[in-house]
């Protein structure tokens, strides 16, 4: 098993470095056909989403459109796949940071109803109670 780094996804999504984008595309095609296997960890996905949103000014909806096909690659194991898919929906629909969206998705998956936080964005989500420490 090999690990997929953030720059592979960014070069593919942005196509800003032609040779790197092409090599990334070929790798992703091999993963799609299950000819090769790789793993994508949570930190890499966070870094990718953060960079697309903050550095490259992609909207949450654009980020979802870019990432959804990656989640379907047969040869790619994605750590916390379900949590990420749920988090992407929160990210797009509630105008919150992806980190907050991930925490909300994680809470739902683990049936956690309360969060210690000063962040009022959690107040937007029905079924979650924000508690001041």
Summed up, the domain count is 1
Which descriptor suits the 3D outline?
A: elongated
What's the tally of helices?
A: 6
Query: How helical, in percent, are the residues?
Result: 55-70%
Low-pLDDT regions? none
The major beta sheet can be summarized as: 3 strands, parallel
Strand order of the largest sheet: 1-2-3
Overview of the molecule:
There is one protein chain. The chain has 133 residues and is mainly alpha-helical. The protein has one domain (2-131): Rossmann fold. Helix content is 57%, strand content 11%. The chain is built from six helices and five strands, in the order βααβααβααββ. The strands form two sheets. Strands 1-2-3 form a three-stranded parallel β-sheet. A two-stranded parallel ribbon has the order 4-5. The longest helix has 15 residues, at 18-32. The model has no long low-confidence stretch (mean pLDDT 97). InterPro entries: PIN-like_dom_sf, PIN_dom, PINc/VapC_TA. It comes from Candidatus Wildermuthbacteria bacterium RIFCSPHIGHO2_01_FULL_48_27b. This is PIN domain-containing protein. Residues 3-126 form the PIN domain.
Labels describing this entry:
PINc/VapC_TA, 6 helices, single chain, PIN domain-containing protein, elongated, mainly alpha, Rossmann fold, 57% helix, 133 residues, three-stranded parallel β-sheet, PIN-like_dom_sf
């Amino acid at each position: 098993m090999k690990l997929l780094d953030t720059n592979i996804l960014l070069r593919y999504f942005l196509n800003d470095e032609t040779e790197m984008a092409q090599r990334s595309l070929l790798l992703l095609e091999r993963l799609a056909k299950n000819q090769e296997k790789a793993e994508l960890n949570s930190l890499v996905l966070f870094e990718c989403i953060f960079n697309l949103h903050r550095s490259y000014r992609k909207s949450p909806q654009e980020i979802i459109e870019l990432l959804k096909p990656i989640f379907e690659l047969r040869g790619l194991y994605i750590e916390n796949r379900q949590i990420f898919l749920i988090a992407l929906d929160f990210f797009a629909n509630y105008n919150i940071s992806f980190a907050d969206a991930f925490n909300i998705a994680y809470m739902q998956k683990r049936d956690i109803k309360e969060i210690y936080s000063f962040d009022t964005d959690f107040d937007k989500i029905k079924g979650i109670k924000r508690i001041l420490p």
